[in-house]
Amino acid sequence: MTTTKTRDRLRIAIQKSGRMADVSQDLLARCGLKFRQSRDKLFCFGESMPIDLLLVRDDDIPGLIAQGVADLGIVGRNVLAEQTLAARANGEAAPGVELRPLNTSRCRLSIAVPQEMEYENPQQLQGLRIATSYPALLGDWLARNGVEAKVVFLAGSVEIAPRLGTADLICDLVSSGATLAANQLKEAVVLLDSEAVIAGPEEVPLDERGELRELLLRRIDGVIQVRESKLVMLHAARGAIETIRAILPNAQTPTLLPIEGSPDQVALQAVCYGAVTWTHLEDMKRAGASQLLVLPVEKILA
After folding, report:
1. What is the CATH number of the domain that holds 145?
2. Domain ranges, residue 186
């Protein structure tokens, strides 16, 4: 049940510890937010803006959003999707919606099989036991593929289930695949590509929190955009500009400035929303560019 209590401060639930805790804190710091942590280390009071943090378990974040305790949450897509499917299966409203992907903490929810097994299609899993911490996502995938298998729920240490004889294969999060290899397993099929996301209610609050939410989301958009952005500066003949523009990766419309004493030459500067590699620079050099500079971009406000 969603609380109707009005608050003038925005609350964001983030992971207290773990791989996404530092990512969340860094993201919010880059948005210009500063916090003072409480003695019990469960709450952070916003000092620069009326935005506070709740430091909780990852699995608790969607529920806090659903209850209205938190206005936003930074959570793994896998956790949000699992709890959304579970809620719908119980006839309940979704705990929140994905508002922004954060392009970080990437992993994937995959089915992994023993290394000696040759996986070709979902029907091979008929009647097998699959251990997982994500029964709703796995059950949904099995149903969509017409597979009847036994879902064995485990809260943790899923990868050792086949070695213990409690399951034939597993469905778990995979990053590098090293843990699977250490347990004589291999990735067979990806069910969900996951990453850290901003989640929240679909409806924007009608009080001050609504304005704070939209302002924060705009700042997050800018932070994400600037991560791989670079400012490219160079000199070139006017006739070479179109060729050079085609090489610039994901570039905005460049600014062209005349160079004093060189009427046929211009200075070009453009923000590229993507990695600028040595190959890009070498291609621009061959196209006629000189004095090439690639600089980091600290902030972007469109």
Report:
1. 3.40.190.10
2. 107-194
In this predicted structure, the answer to whether residue 56 has a pLDDT above a threshold of 60 is yes
**Alpha-carbon distance 110 to 188, whole Å?**
7
pLDDT in tens, 104-144: 889 999 999 999 999 999 999 999 999 999 999 999 999 99
- Which neighbouring-strand residues pair with 187? 112
Whether 112 and 177 map to the same domain: the answer is yes
Q: For residue 266, which amino acid is it?
A: V
Report the first-to-last Cα separation within the chain, whole angstroms.
38
Mark whether 95 and 201 lie in a shared domain.
yes
What is the token pair recorded at 39? 């003695």
Supply angle C-alpha 167, 111, 154, rounded to 5: 45
Mean per-residue pLDDT for 224-232? 84
For residues 219 and 240, membership in a common domain is answered with: no
Write the pLDDT tens digit of every residue in 5-32.
557 899 999 999 877 888 899 999 989 9
* Cα dihedral value 33, 207, 61, 48, nearest 10: 10
Beta-bridge partner residues of 261: none
Cα torsion angle, 128, 129, 135, 137, sign:
negative
Q: Which residues contact 126 (CB under 8 A, 6 or more apart)?
A: 147, 148, 149
Q: Are residues 140 and 173 in the same domain?
A: yes
Q: Which two tokens stand for residue 163?
A: 């070695």
Of 99, 1, 14, 27, nearest in space to 59 by CA:
14
Residues 85, 203 within the same domain: yes
Q: Which residues of 191-221 are buried (b: 16+ CB within 10 A; e: fewer)?
A: bbebbbbbbbbeeebeeebeebbeebbebbe
Residue 232's nearest CA partner among 153, 287, 167 is 287
